[in-house]
Specification:
Layout (H helix, E strand, L loop, with lengths): L6 H21 L3 H19 L2 H11 L3 H20 L1 H23 L4 H30 L2
Helix pairs in contact: 1-5, 1-6, 2-6
């Protein structure tokens, strides 16, 4: 039986990543920024495509010793400061994260395998990222000049 594809969640994921691509294109940053964002999308897709038990065990492994727990606590504190400092950027990240989670939950509900979830999420996200950048580039060069 062919699983029912959750089009609304995937369109939302595409739209959020197109917005991110448009933001990156308008930012006129270095090409390395695009690579970092694409790698973050791949890592996020990989994290979300694995089972919750695997993620729980991985985080429990981080807290297994006192030194690792201290390092994690310091990194979480630094992350908290960065979140407060860049609150407007955090809002964009949370929208993208929610779109990723919604797509993962809908794909799991539709009985997709973990590999299919990873492939679908990363393909849609990277397509949206580069499509948003391309649209912003075309609008800024063809229409505004």
């Amino acid at each position: 039986m062919i699983p029912k594809i959750p089009w609304l969640a995937l369109l939302l994921l595409l739209a959020t990543n197109m917005t991110l691509g448009g933001f990156l294109s308008a930012w006129h940053g270095h090409w390395l920024g695009w690579v970092v964002v694409a790698l973050c999308i791949l890592v996020l897709g990989a994290m979300l495509s694995c089972s919750w038990a695997t993620m729980r065990d991985s985080f429990a492994h981080l807290l297994a010793s006192d030194l690792r727990a201290f390092i994690v606590a310091v990194l979480v504190a630094l992350l908290g400061v960065a979140i407060i400092f860049w609150l407007h950027t955090l809002a964009h990240f949370l929208v993208i994260m929610c779109a990723f989670l919604l797509a993962k939950i809908d794909l799991q509900t539709a009985n997709f395998s973990d590999r299919q979830i990873f492939g679908t999420i990363t393909f849609i996200s990277l397509s949206g990222l580069f499509l948003g950048g391309l649209i912003n580039y075309l609008v800024s060069t063809l229409i505004l000049e």
